[in-house]
Write a structure and sequence with these properties.
233 residues; alpha+beta; nine-stranded mixed beta sheet; two-stranded parallel sheet; 7 helices; 11 strands; globular; DUF2971 domain-containing protein
């Protein structure tokens, strides 16, 4: 279950397709634990993750002159927020396969916005939101800071290709310590609509994935990648 926040935007159509590209070990961990791994926000490759744009930062600095703890709180809050990233796209993305998988191995989970919402299990210890990322010019544009989730829903324009939707968990109100990340309870069968296997993977790898999914008691629809289609001449 997730919390609704009228300030956080999402595609209106709950059938909007989203993808998660991952390697086999992370996929197996998801199936075996039936928990979704979320990365701590300050561990992302993008050093700007969870930070503010320059106009917003200037405003926060002014507010911090009389209250230095105000700025420190925003800095340390990044250690209390975990994120699971999903990619909005009607179709598979060649670029996403390249970025998030290696050695022609890996999988893509196909889901929808509605499935993400329904797959989240109620958490009593922390708040969760699902929101679409806004891509802005960090030198010129303003990020509102009246809501602690907002810094995590903005990224620089150079990341626009990600077309990202995020599940965000915030444990700031309790004593949970996030090291590299956080695992949250999910309904696996609701979360996963289809699985696509890397288009350049070998047959033994495809058969291995199919066999592992079956042995673990799941019957997901496993699709042949559209990028693997035979050439017609």
């Amino acid at each position: 279950m997730y919390l609704n926040n009228s300030n956080i935007k999402l595609p209106e159509d709950s059938n909007t397709i989203v993808w998660k590209y991952l390697d086999l070990s992370k996929f197996l961990d998801l199936l075996l634990s039936q928990k979704l791994f979320m990365s701590r926000s300050d561990k992302f490759e993008d050093q700007y993750e969870g930070t503010f744009s320059e106009p917003t930062f200037e405003e926060i600095k002014k507010l911090s002159i009389d209250n230095p703890e105000f700025l420190n709180y925003y800095k340390t809050h990044r250690e209390k927020v975990a994120i699971s990233s999903w990619h909005i796209n009607e179709y598979e993305s060649f670029a996403m396969w390249q970025i998030f998988t290696q050695n022609s191995e890996g999988l893509a989970i196909q889901s929808t916005i509605g499935r993400l919402q329904n797959a989240l299990q109620p958490e009593t210890n922390f708040n969760q939101y699902i929101g679409e990322v806004n891509y802005i010019d960090y030198k010129k544009e303003y990020i509102p800071f009246d809501d602690m989730f907002f810094p995590f829903l903005f990224k620089r324009k150079s990341f626009q290709y990600e077309r990202e939707v995020r599940i965000i968990s915030d444990v700031a109100d309790n004593s949970i310590k996030i090291n590299d990340g956080l695992k949250i309870n999910v309904d696996i069968n609701e979360l996963i609509e289809k699985i696509y296997i890397h288009p350049k993977s070998e047959n033994w790898y495809k058969n291995l994935v199919i066999q592992l999914v079956k042995q673990l008691g799941f019957d997901f629809c496993i699709e042949k990648s559209d990028l693997e289609s035979d050439i017609l001449i």
